[in-house]
């Protein structure tokens, strides 16, 4: 696919982003050579799945930047510690790992996530290579909901948001992301997994009905792959589906940003 064909060399560095509750240890990635005229790259916030920042997502961020974006990869679990916050090889079936994963989930609140992204925007404003007037956000697994909520939190900033095998995007919860559809101005994309109990066909229908009612521009498709298909160290990773996901990501971001 031509939209994902051109890649560039990438610079990377680790930074601490200050917040009222501590610092978000983060990675920054951006093309080594600035554009000839603007000298700035569209900003993309890359949020991880439940296991947080680790080598798989570092490489993910590096690859994303190679297509012409300034990428921030934040450790949203910083309230519990610096990344990595759990062994990347931890099994979801192990009791100790399940307890830790529950701790990670509970450390995230809607208010905290909003404040964290506000801090990211403030920090990036001083980055000469970043254009924070053009912002995209990506979410995987539980951070699909984070991407959707953040698009609603910052509708004037965020122009594109995507969720891959995201869960609980529409539910009976009082704070379900789909209830904020009317606040979103971004162009959205959803890549659903098959047989995903966290986002069933019924959930998808509820979400998409809300988006249509709010006249939100979106596209979606169900991949012939299981939950986790786009994350390289997932047991459900599928290379063909991951490549398709990259095509969709780059096309969305280039069109919207």
CATH H level: which superfamily? Alpha/Beta hydrolase fold, catalytic domain
Biggest sheet strand line-up: 1-2-4-3-5-6-7-8
User: What characteristic shape results from the CA principal axes?
Assistant: globular
- Largest sheet descriptor: 8 strands, mixed
| Number of helical segments with 4 or more residues | 6
Overview of the structural elements:
- This protein has 257 residues and is an alpha/beta fold.
- It has helices at residues 55-66, 95-106, 110-124, 143-153, 201-213, 239-256; strands spanning 10-19, 22-31, 41-46, 70-74, 130-140, 158-164, 187-192, 218-222.
- It has one domain (2-256): 3-Layer(aba) Sandwich (Rossmann fold).
- It has an 8-stranded mixed β-sheet, with helices on both faces.
- Helix 4 (143-153) links the parallel strand 5 (130-140) and strand 6.
- Helix 3 (110-124) packs across helix 4.
Helix-strand blueprint:
Elements (H helix, E strand, L loop, with lengths): L9 E10 L2 E10 L9 E6 L8 H12 L3 E5 L20 H12 L3 H15 L5 E11 L2 H11 L4 E7 L22 E6 L8 H13 L4 E5 L16 H18 L1
Parallel strand pairs: 3-4, 3-5, 5-6, 6-7, 7-8
Antiparallel strand pairs: 1-2, 2-4
Helix pairs in contact: 3-4
